[in-house]
């Protein structure tokens, strides 16, 4: 299935994948936070968050800010 | 004799400095660290972005932790309530703080905060346990409504972000100070020179937040020192209560006993 990952279309080999698995697959590096379809998903809920086709996942990490 | 002053407190946390400094736009990570040190700031602002599009978040985070400053995450670049609330929640998880510099823009030309969306996002975030530091315009009524929602700290702009123009509307900023005597007020954005920070402090603002003025100076470390001194000078000027302005000249040296005094 296809999802959007950080603004890019990503084709996944399976339609059965949770958020933690996706983050591992994409090499997420600590520290980070994640949102799906513009809704924050706490890390404690990533294991149980089953992704659906078309979901938009944002993986964010610290940067400089003003 | 030293002027008596209370330390600045933000949502119950006592800070050693009245200068907040950003971490962006420096010519190098080392200059950023040196500038933060030279500024004596006790709070550093940071943000969140997609991994892979900027230097590694983990490396940056290690650098910021080295500064041992309090962290103020922002929602820079957000243009609607949903984006800002989501980014604030993500910031809380990454940076482990309830503080959020709530930046919610309404216009791409001057990056002016959207006052209506700002109120809505503030209401949602306060209900969710955040301690909101809203970046807002210098509109008294918006400021009053932010306080009514529970903001203990407000950060009206001095001028549009990154312009370095200083305090474009000192009258508005003074009125906000006078009408909200119990609210902690920072001038955020638009400062370019130490004298701008000094002016903000002289009219009674509790602190200033700046970034580009230091990061984009020819010598950021020297400029950071300049701002630190200006904030202290402005604060002293405020505490000391300035003499009243007069329209006519008045000699400071007594005329009594003046030799060669000629009476008209």
From TrEMBL, chain A:
Gene3D superfamilies per record = 3.10.20.30
Q: Which domain of life is it from?
A: Bacteria
InterPro entries documented for this protein: Beta-grasp_dom_sf, Mopterin_synth/thiamin_S_b, Thi_S, ThiS/MoaD-like
Which species expresses this protein natively? Pseudoalteromonas ulvae
A Pfam family the protein falls into: ThiS
> Under what name is this protein listed?
Thiamine biosynthesis protein ThiS
